[in-house]
Amino acid sequence: MAEVVITRTAEEASALAADHVARAIAAQPRLVLGVATGSTPERFYRHLARRIAEDGLDTSGVRAFALDEYVGLPADHPESYAAVIERTVTAPLGLDPAHVHVPDGRATDPFAAAAAYDRAIGEAGGVDIQILGIGRNGHIGFNEPGSSLGSRTRVKTLAATTREANARFFTDPEDVPVHCITQGIGTIREARHLVLLAFGTDKSAALAGAVEGPVSASLPGSAIQLHPHVTVLADEDAARELALADAYREAWRLKPAAQGF
Questions:
Q1: Is 97 helix (H, G, I), strand (E, B) or coil?
Q2: Domain extents for the chain?
């Protein structure tokens, strides 16, 4: 079962995640970090950038792989995930751009590009820590409900609810792409440590299903239950529907601080 840490605020949860990743970088300078986009991990990246600066960490050897990318956006589009990762991850964390990888959503053959990306993750030795969010419909990455729990990096069609949620980032909702390249659930599950962030009441039902519900392709996030090392960091609003919330709080309170995640 996932380790669930419930904090008062999203800021506290993000800071805890940043502390963990900063310690991991200090111990493993060639760490492979799986990075997510969207609004959920933005606080985490800000806290991590601050920790890197305060601790004087050398991140030149850190490698990063993004979870997903839209298919068909122009190379210079500010909402392509390549651009978002550059703004929120690569530059703030001081990563070498040559070590930061995003699926090629502009490839002539996106299916071949997806397969190549999956191979590249393996060739890098796999992801050490994978940062995840969860969608209101339970998706992780862009693995929408119905995705195989053994799926690999591939081209997917975005659900209408996902396109609606992402429309806030675009001038016209019709500009939100219909297709994407995403790491599959099977690919994500190969990361050595999954760190899932969930904030706000609109994520509470999906989080409860992912952590405590049955494992089902109908709720892709539930696949975290199949992984041996998962940490879920949720604020009180996102945790409101967790049946075992009090038990999670007590387990975290009693855990030795030095043990970390």
A1: helix
A2: 3-254
